[in-house]
Amino acid sequence: MRIAYGIHGYGRGHAMRSLAVLSELNARHDLLVLAGRDAQETLAARFPVEPIPCLRFAYRGGRISAARTLGENAGLLSDIVLGRGVARRVEALLARFRPDVVVSDSEPLVLRAAHRLGIPRIGFDHVGVIAWCRPEAPPKDALQLGRDALAYRLLLGRPERVIVSSFFSAPPRARNVICIPPVLRERVLRATPEDAGHLLVYLNQPKLFTREVLTAIAAAGLPALVYGSGREGMEGAVRFKRFDEASFVDDLARARALLCTAGHQLASEAIHLGKPMLVCPEASAEQRLNARELERLGVARQATVAGLNAGTLRAFLGDLDRHRARLAAAPRDGNARAVELLEALARALAARRSRGQDLNVRSTVRGLRQGERFHAPGDAGSLPAPP
Question: In the chain, where are the structural domains located?
Answer without folding.
Answer: 2-183+334-384, 187-327
